[in-house]
Write a structure and sequence with these properties.
3-stranded antiparallel β-sheet, 7-stranded parallel β-sheet, 2 domains, TIM Barrel, alpha/beta
Length: about 375
């Protein structure tokens, strides 16, 4: 089997509701879709998810694929996924989100060719489904409490995450409001998205909200500041999770070396694909650091892919953020992703188990 054609194009997906955090306000998701065709009439599909402007957005990722990554893979065997991942790394430094979209399509092809769901190719099931977390953006405390109550009742999510990073006491009041409606033991965590400018500022801010029995505080400082995170970790009692700091296996090794985190939040898109994400999770497992899978607010293709990864990795004891499809009113696939009682199940169909819904995709496609 050989790759004959790779095409990527940008889409703009309207979100059901506005989402605000320390570094972004989102009303749409600017993503890209990828198709990889072969000479045996097997086509794979991938999604490039990158919600934040500093990671580049859909049109830029589509350009990286069409101009650089795609041409380098024409004529190659799509089943040699590790070799093609290395080939992409040699062609383009960075661009992990674009690479993840292509790699996702390669796994889709591999599963279809073998007649197996992707999780089987990743090693089989460590669990039957992935427990889910719901993240709440900046809102007034009573609005945060109402949203938390809604998603626990309506979708059965197993934890709540609050975005923090606002002046004054509103973060503490939001934590208090959510804790009040969910009770003293329901898992609640917070995410600062690199908001604090120094370890001292982060320590003071975290100490003001530790009374709310938080599961963890995610990424309080800039991604590069591992030493600062280690200082924060040693000064507070709440576990520290890293997200933006963990984008490659090498990042994971360095964070472990300096003792910068208690938890890793691993993204398929930030890592460059399922293969690298699985490597990061395995490295963390060897170091005794638990992981979860994060989200860029992915649509249904990338969420389906992450579900396969989520059931295949042992070292995922925490709830994962794979609720992106709940943030949109329409779907880019014809199948319904199975979410029941706060659990996301992978498809049992070959490959990713998805069929593109071209009616919606074409409506969301960004003119070139």
């Amino acid at each position: 089997m050989k790759i004959t054609r790779i095409e990527a194009f940008a889409i703009r997906a309207p979100r059901s509701r506005r989402f605000a955090a320390a570094r972004a306000v989102l009303t749409h998701s600017d993503f890209a879709l990828v198709s990889v065709e072969t000479d045996e009439a097997v086509t794979g599909y991938g999604e490039v998810s990158s919600a934040l402007y500093y990671y580049r957005l859909g049109p830029s990722h589509a350009y990286d694929i069409n101009a650089y990554l795609g041409p380098a893979l024409i004529g190659q065997d799509p089943l040699m996924i590790p070799a093609l991942v290395d080939r992409m790394d040699a062609i383009l430094s960075g661009g992990r989100q674009a690479k993840s979209g292509i790699e996702m399509a390669l796994w889709d092809i591999a599963g279809k060719a073998a007649g197996l769901p992707v999780y089987r190719l990743l090693g089989g099931k460590a669990r039957s489904a992935v427990p889910l977390n719901w993240t709440i953006g900046f809102a007034e405390p009573d609005e945060s409490a109402a949203e938390a109550t809604q998603y626990v009742a309506q979708h059965g999510v197993h934890s709540i995450r609050l975005k923090i990073g606002r002046p004054g006491d509103i973060d503490a009041r939001s934590c208090a409001a959510v804790r009040k409606v969910l009770g003293p033991s329901f898992p609640v965590r917070v995410d600062a998205n690199e908001y604090y400018r120094s370890s001292k500022e982060a320590i003071n801010a975290i100490r003001r909200i530790e009374e709310f029995n938080l599961q963890c505080v995610e990424q309080p400082l800039a991604a590069h500041d591992l030493a600062g995170h280690a200082e924060v970790r040693s000064a507070v009692s709440t576990p520290i999770a890293l997200d933006e700091s963990i984008q490659s296996p090498r990042d994971a090794i360095e964070a472990i070396r300096v003792r910068a985190a208690d938890i890793f939040n691993v993204y398929v898109s930030e890592s460059g694909g399922l293969l690298r994400a699985q490597q990061i999770i395995s490295i963390a497992e060897a170091a005794g650091i638990p992981c979860l899978i994060g989200t860029m607010g992915e649509l249904q293709i990338a969420t389906a892919a992450a579900a396969h990864l989520g059931v295949a990795c042992v070292n995922l004891p925490m709830t994962c953020d794979l609720v992106g499809p709940l943030r949109y009113d329409e779907s880019i696939i014809r199948e319904s992703l199975r979410i029941e009682r706060g659990l996301l199940y992978p498809s049992e169909a070959p490959g990713l188990g998805i069929t593109p819904n071209w009616e919606v995709i074409n409506r969301w496609r960004v003119p070139e």
